[in-house]
Specification:
Blueprint lengths: L7 H23 L1 H8 L5 H33 L1 H20 L4 H4 L2 H30 L6 H5 L1 H23 L2 H6 L4 H17 L6 H9 L8 H5 L2 H21 L3 H7 L5 H29 L2 H22 L5 H19 L2 H7 L6 H29 L4 H20 L10 H8 L5
Length: about 425
């Protein structure tokens, strides 16, 4: 295994922007319990949450388009250029939500503004994932890629933690009436400003060696095209299949968890939020540990462990979580779920990047992943609430288990990727005999 050092400047530079991207993406879900009535005053709490969850899912359906456009842009113009563009779009979308008018002021026009903002966020995040995954993977030497790329989910989780932390602060400093009225706008203002700051940070990043090499040697017309992606159909389908179970499980134990503990278990919103915050803090710390482990033993063992754990453990875990009565029990059960999910989240970015050659790597990661997220990740919360509204909430637990089972089959038969060379220079270095 290579003893080369991790380029921390590149890892931090890529991750900080990713943090803000995913803060803005997740904060919509975190604060939905407060602003749902502002845009959808009719019906009970579950009906209102269903409406906001539907708009949340709309953003996911925009992600394939974002994955195609911005993945192509990253392969043609560079990883750095794509990272800068995605965070700009995210800043604009957060600002739109922050100023969206309520139902009392303009009727359902405010909900339309939410939809437009979520479409922009979907476009941005559809490209952000691939640009970040390829940048972190390409900027790191072989033998350290698993650990370095794990910071994608560290930063994603950190973004959610910042959102949850801000929610806890607002819950303890503002009345419920103030939060329902205008307090929910504060996190979106924070997100818009933070994204503008990260724009300048990302402009100072260096391009990866693998992309620079490809830019010198490959014709622009060959880079980032659907035609080139179609020459790697097997890998693209593999990305969709291996993502299916992981993304459903991830969104179940992260964005949906707070609502589930509040709406099903009956915990106070403040307690549910604190459980999510503490569980996610531990979860973020686990990512580099699992990523480093994958650099030693390979990616497949971790993916298989996740697949088995999620397939077998989801039904009893979710059933128990729906019956908890306090902070301690909810935290322990949530942590068990997130530990299982770590087998997927810590390495899914690097596995996908290692499947494709440089000239189509960003598009190859972005488009299939975005399709899988639109079909399974973005709809997870809506599917969960639909099952609950239909009086068969346990059906959702089996749905998550079934998705994990499909992905498990893929994990069992896919090839190991940890020793793949990502550039010609890296491949050449492998052929040079080591000095004794």
């Amino acid at each position: 295994m290579s003893k080369a050092r991790v380029p921390w400047k590149a890892v931090v530079g890529g991750s900080v922007g990713n943090l803000v991207e995913w803060y803005d993406w997740f904060v919509y879900s975190s604060f939905a319990v407060y602003f749902a009535a502002s845009f959808f005053p009719e019906g009970d709490n579950t009906a209102k949450l269903l409406n906001t969850a539907a708009i949340f899912a709309v953003g996911f359906f925009m992600r394939p388009l974002g994955g195609w456009l911005l993945g192509r842009y990253a392969d043609r113009k560079g990883r750095k250029a794509a990272l800068t563009l995605t965070v700009t779009l995210m800043s604009a979308s957060a600002l739109l939500i922050a100023v969206a008018p309520t139902y009392d002021a303009v009727g359902y026009f405010g909900a339309l503004v939410l939809v437009v903002a979520r479409l922009l966020q979907g476009l941005s995040v559809g490209g952000e994932y691939a640009a970040s995954a390829t940048y972190l993977t390409e900027a790191t030497p072989q033998g350290r890629r698993g650990m370095a790329s794990s910071f994608q989910y560290v930063s994603m989780t950190a973004g959610q933690l910042v959102g949850l932390g801000l929610q806890i602060i607002l819950q303890n400093t503002m009345s419920k009436e103030a939060l329902d009225s205008y307090g929910w706008r504060i996190p979106f203002v924070v997100g818009a400003v933070a994204a503008a700051v990260v724009f300048y940070l990302r402009r100072n990043l260096l391009e990866t060696e693998a992309y620079d090499e490809e830019q010198r040697e490959a014709a622009p017309a060959r880079r980032g095209t659907i035609a080139q992606l179609l020459t790697h159909k097997k890998e693209a389908l593999l990305v969709i299949a291996l993502t299916m179970g992981g993304t459903v499980a991830y969104y179940t134990y992260t964005t949906y968890l707070t609502k589930y503990l509040s709406n099903t278990a009956g915990l106070p919103k403040e307690t549910a939020t604190l459980v999510s915050f503490c569980a996610l803090l531990v979860f973020a710390c686990l990512q580099p540990v699992a990523g480093s482990l994958s650099d030693r033993i390979g990616r497949r063992p971790l993916l298989i462990t996740f697949g088995l754990g999620s397939m077998i453990g989801t039904v009893p875990l979710m059933t128990a979580l729906g019956q908890v009565s306090g902070f301690g029990g909810a935290l322990v059960l949530s942590l068990i779920g997130l530990i299982i999910v770590t087998g997927y989240t810590s390495i899914n970015a690097v596995v996908k990047a290692e499947l494709f050659p440089t000239h189509v790597r960003a598009l190859g990661v972005a488009l299939p992943y975005a399709i899988a997220n639109a079909l399974f990740g973005g709809t997870a919360e809506y599917v969960a609430l639909w099952f609950k509204n239909s009086g068969i909430e346990s059906g959702f637990y089996w749905y998550v288990s079934g998705c994990a089972a499909v992905s498990l089959v893929v994990y069992l038969f896919m090839r190991e990727t940890k020793d793949v060379a990502l550039s010609r220079a890296e491949a050449a270095a492998e052929t040079v005999p080591a000095r004794v």
